[in-house]
Amino acid sequence: MAKKKYTSELDKSKKKKKEAEEGLEYLRQVELPESQGGGRKFISDYLTEEQRKEQEANDAYASVMQAYQQRRFGYKERLVKYAQDKAIELVPDRWTIWIVQTNGEDINVHGKNFKTQDGIVFILRSPSNGVYMRAIGVAYDAIVDMKNMDTMIVIMENTIDSAKGILLGDNKDTHSTFKETKIIT
């Protein structure tokens, strides 16, 4: 189970202060005329730099994943860690998420058995004990699998929003949320 990392109040306040300072600096730069490196040019450069940093981080992780893919040792474990690192920030208090690698053996989820294939299962439990599940197969292609994990995170977020009743345009589309599992308790 993914657990949130403990951060002290001091760390939280330092992080907020740093974000506020960065936000103020961003606003100052935006308000400068383009001739001084501000305005539209600054916004364009800033967004390009942010995209470049994110792409570099993903590329670094993808290269590690490709090394694991070649050995197939710990590949799914690393995919699970990648998904957990992204999901942990999105899961609200009192909700629980499990991201579990499967190998074709049956798994037991809160007293109910499910057949699996080679892949990864996302299990989400709400504060009202509703259990939602969704699973994907592993392609053993690092880039494809990382995109699949990102998609599953978006679906997980939609499921949480739908369960809370705040998903805009909630049309009960089975592709945009996890499937609720009937668990007898």
How are the SSEs placed, and which strands pair?
Elements: H1 9-31, H2 39-71, H3 75-87, E1 96-103, E2 107-109, E3 112-114, E4 118-125, E5 131-137, H4 142-164, E6 179-181
Antiparallel strand pairs: 1-4, 2-3, 4-5, 5-6
Helix pairs in contact: 3-4
Q: Could you characterize the architecture of this molecule?
A:
- This protein is of the alpha+beta class.
- The chain folds into two domains: 63 residues; 107 residues, no CATH class.
- Helices cover 50% and strands 17% of the residues.
- It has a four-stranded antiparallel sheet, covered by helices on one side. A two-stranded antiparallel ribbon has the order 2-3.
- A hairpin with a 2-residue loop joins strand 2 and strand 3.
- Helix 3 runs parallel beside helix 4.
What are the main properties of this structure?
single chain, alpha+beta, 4 helices, 6 strands, 4-stranded antiparallel beta sheet, 17% strand, 185 residues
Structure summarized in a few sentences:
By secondary structure, this protein is α+β, with helices and mostly antiparallel strands. Helices cover 50% and strands 17% of the residues.
Give the helix proportion (percent range). 40-55%
The overall average pLDDT, rounded, is 81
Total domain count: 2
Alpha-beta content class: alpha+beta
Strand percentage lies at 15-25%
Radius of gyration: 20 Å
Number of helices: 4
Give the overall form. globular
Largest sheet: 4 strands, antiparallel
Separation of the first and last Cα atoms: 21 Å
Order of helices and strands: HHHEEEEEHE
Strand order of the largest sheet: 1-4-5-6
List segments where confidence is low: pLDDT < 50 over at least 5 consecutive residues: none
Number of strands: 6
